[in-house]
Each structure stands twice: as structure tokens, then as C-alpha cells.
Amino acid sequence: MKKRFFTILFILACWTSYSDLTSGSLPAGQASATQPSIKESRQSRPVEKAAINFQRITVEPGDTLLSITERMNEQQPSIEQVLKDFSILNPSADPNHLQIGNTYAFPYYHKKAN
């Protein structure tokens, strides 16, 4: 009876591993051929005008919402403001879980003239 139990358990473990690898549930399997290349992502693009100024940037490994925002801006707004503006610009995106290779609109803050 033990032998049958461990055989079924082994088959179940193999099947779940196979289905995870073939369905693309791992981050490496989610890359798309239509995504822009990594070289394109760092190129300077003009700041687009909207209710909130923003710049479209493709996320690379190691990037976070705050690291990209700090790299783009001299003036550092509050984290709450960055999260709010990012959510307005990208309503379907979770700011805490950016996907590598996806392009998002990041808020651009500039100094106001005195």
C-alpha cells in the first residue's frame, strides 16, 4: 500500500511540474516576441503631456517603480504621490508588481518656475 501511495505522489509531483513549465506560469515563459528590446527601453523618449506629465519606460530586471521614478526626476515627490499618479496613468497595472519587459507610463515631475 505504501508503494502505491508514493508512486501516486511521485506522478502527481511530476504532472504539476510539467504543467507549470508548459503553461508559462514561470516569469521566464511570459516573454513575448512583440515586446520592445531591452536596448530600446533605455533610450530617451520625450515626456508626454497629459493631466500628469509622464514618460513611457520599459521595465528591466531589478527596476522598481521608485527606482525608475528617482532616475527620471530631480525632484523627489512623496511615495504616496508617485503611487497615486502611477495608478492614474496605468489603471490596470499593479505598482508593486511590475512585469519585466512591459512598458508603463511613469510620472514625470519637474521643478516649477519661481
From TrEMBL:
Region described as Disordered: 26-45
Biased composition (Polar residues): 26-38
Alphabetized InterPro entries for the sequence: LysM_dom_sf
Alphabetized UniProt keyword annotations: Signal
Stretch forming the signal peptide: 1-19
Record carries keyword Zinc-finger: no
Highest taxon in the source lineage: Bacteria
Protein name: LysM domain-containing protein
